[in-house]
Amino acid sequence: MGLSKLDTLYRQVILEHSAQPHHHGKLSGDATNEIELNNPTCGDVISLQVKIDDGKISEIAFDGSGCSISTASASMMTDAVLGKTVEEAQQLVLDFSKMVQGEIEAPDELGDAGLLSGVAKFPARIKCATLAWKALYQAVDKEEQDD
Ligand code: ZN
């Protein structure tokens, strides 16, 4: 497969996530933690709800408004971290951050989110891609402090 076809495939998956984001909306029950973060350079806003049971992310939902990269990234993030322990989720955030800065190849554990590795070529969009991941990191960090 040529690089341009691969790029087209990536774009298609990113567009699908942004058009119909996974885990979009609000949790039906109480969240363990909620956080709102924004990316002023683009105007992206995310509101994230996380429910943690036995140290694992048992439920997750996000809301807000943002560009297609930030929305797709949030959707991919929720897929990647659901069911993971807080420590595993935080490691994924660190891996994602390194990946979009071009420091590492996409790890398998990131799932569809690995497709955003191409963002490394567009520094202006890195903050769009990392917004949801930063929100998750801060949300679960807060949970640890509360204990
Ligand atoms: Zn954006």
Structural class: alpha+beta
Mean pLDDT: 92
Describe the global form.
Answer: globular
- The oligomeric state of the chains shown is single chain
Number of strands: 3
Number of alpha- plus pi-helical segments: 4
Q: Helix coverage percent of residues?
A: 40-55%
Q: Span from first to last CA? A: 50 Å
What order do the SSEs take from the amino end to the carboxyl end, as H and E? HEEEHHH
Low-confidence stretches: none
Question: What report would you give on this structure?
Answer:
By secondary structure, the chain is α+β, with helices and mostly antiparallel strands. Helices cover 46% and strands 18% of the residues. It has four helices and three strands. The protein has helices at residues 3-19, 68-81, 86-100, 126-146, and strands at residues 33-39, 44-53, 56-65. Strands 1-2-3 form a three-stranded antiparallel sheet, with helices on one face. Strand 2 (44-53) and strand 3 form a beta hairpin. Helix 1 packs across helix 2 (68-81), helix 2 packs parallel to helix 4 (126-146) and helix 3 packs antiparallel against helix 4 (126-146). The radius of gyration is 15 Å and the shape is globular. Bound molecules: zinc ion. Residues 39, 42, 44, 66-67, 69-70, 128 line the site of zinc ion.
